[in-house]
Write a structure and sequence with these properties.
The chain is mainly beta.
Length: 77
């Protein structure tokens, strides 16, 4: 599975436990959200699908970066 880490080396390194899961979220500050998120490290970090817009539609222009470069925007739930 292709994936990308957080920009500026913001994804923590180590072993963590899952804290919570959810169907979707939207962060108006970042103007994007995601589906099927799972949080770890004190609900601070998430792994999730390709980003979505305010209508829950995948932002395909973001999908091209998966596995190619750090691209997560570090949005929070």
């Amino acid at each position: 599975m292709y994936c990308s880490t957080g920009i500026n080396d913001s994804t923590p390194h180590g072993t963590f436990h899952i804290i919570d899961r959810g169907a979707n979220f939207y962060n108006p500050t970042e103007k994007m959200g995601a589906n099927y998120w799972t949080s770890f490290k004190g609900n601070t970090y998430l792994f999730h699908t390709v980003p979505t817009d305010e209508n829950g539609k995948y932002i395909t222009s973001e999908a091209v970066y998966l596995g190619k470069k750090p691209s997560s925007h570090a949005a929070s739930v």
